[in-house]
Amino acid sequence: MPSIRLGQLPTPIDDASRLRDAIGMGSRLLIKRDDALPFGFGGNKVRKLTLVAADALASGATALITCGGVQSNHCRATASAAARLGLACHVVANGAAPERLTGNALLLQLLGARMTYVASREERNPGMQRVAEEVRASGGVPYVIPLGASNPLGALGFARGIGEVVRQTLVPDVIVHASSSGGTQAGLIAGCALYEVNARVVGISADDSVESIREEVLGICEGIEAMLDLAPGALGAAERFEADASFVGDGYGIPTDGSREAQALAATHDAFFVDHWYTAKALAAVIAYARRGEFRDGQTVMFWHTGGQVGLFA
Ligand SMILES: Cc1ncc(COP(=O)(O)O)c(C=O)c1O
Where are the alpha helices (DSSP H) in 86-196? Predict the structure, then answer.
């Protein structure tokens, strides 16, 4: 699959031994530092965009169009890719135009993204179609990237991430990560199947129910099977799928006691930063599982840091 280079891979893997000791964890705790991916403030969307943006270029696109919340990490990563490739970027954001630009909203402006605001999540897809028509009408070639770049092509970027970890020779027994639109989780599951890595992949929901994440992840894995000419079910996604929505608390982006503790422990023990939308809740799950004795001593647990640190400045 053609891909483009956006920042330096592989991302580092840190041994969070002080955090592990602080939570009384008998297993090894590794942090896969996609937050430190050196492109446009990094994060999980960059891996997906290495393939999706390559496809956009191949199709002759002049403008990338995508959607998300006003503080979307994915939109910031897409606008970064567009800037690097010399393409226009249009973002359809649900919510009101912020009075003061902070965090990702500020970066979107600096990156030159053209913003369209819609009132609800449901209006994002029709909004992107309208913007695509406008681009066409003015002689451009639009390329619409779905929410989170979570389609089979984008998810393959994460399957490659498993290959990267194998080459780094630090193969985990359990991977825990923040999950939302399903592309990261589908890619990790596919990667484990394709590289024959026998690891549990546990997605910690940022907002959605386990059932809706499952539907997204299995659908994307089916698409990957079709793309790679594999038999339906060859990736074993239905059997491998594991998610937990019990760390969401009162809602998307609303801190919980667990996410506050995770954020403080990560910073004070191993100097990395997690946000209350995604990664602090996923790290809170790692901490809770360790305390409940759900990891076996001697296992290697990998917290896949999917980024989102810009959210600390929102
Ligand atoms: C920081 C961060 N972590 C995790 C996720 C979830 O990834 P996915 O949408 O691929 O499930 C997102 C999605 O926006 C994110 O921004």
Answer: 103-110, 124-137, 152-167, 183-194
Distance 182 CA to ligand 1 centre (A): 8
Segment 14-62, tens digit of pLDDT? 999 999 999 999 999 999 999 999 999 999 999 999 999 999 999 999 9
Q: Is the peptide bond before 146 cis (omega within 30 degrees of 0)?
A: no
CATH number of the domain at 306, please: 3.40.50.1100
Index of the ligand 1 atom closest to the CA of residue 177: 4
Q: Is residue 241 part of a domain?
A: yes
Whether 143 and 154 map to the same domain: the answer is no
Domains identified in the chain, total number? 2
260/4 Cα distance (integer angstroms): 37
| 72 given a catalytic annotation | yes
Contact 35, 305 (CB under 8 A): yes
What confidence tens digit (pLDDT) does each residue in 105-164 have?
Answer: 999 999 999 999 999 999 999 999 999 999 999 999 999 999 999 999 999 999 999 999
C-alpha–C-alpha distance, residues 80 and 170, integer Å: 30
> What are the two backbone dihedrals, phi and then psi, of residue 21, each rounded to the nearest 5 degrees?
-65, -40
> pLDDT at residue 170 above 90?
no
Q: For residue 157, with 0-12 CB atoms within 10 Å meaning exposed, 13-18 middle and 19 or more buried, which class applies? A: buried
pLDDT exceeds cutoff 90 at 216: yes
- To test the pocket of ligand 1, the residue of 31, 70, 179, 220 to mutate (highest count of ligand atoms within 8 Å of its CB) is 179
pTM, rounded to two decimals: 0.97
Q: Percent helix, strand and coil across the chain, each rounded to 5?
A: 45, 15, 35
Decide if 7 is inside a domain: no
- State which of 180, 210, 218 you would mutate to test the pocket of ligand 1, scoring each by most atoms of that ligand within 8 A of its C-beta: 180
- pLDDT mean over 274-282: 98
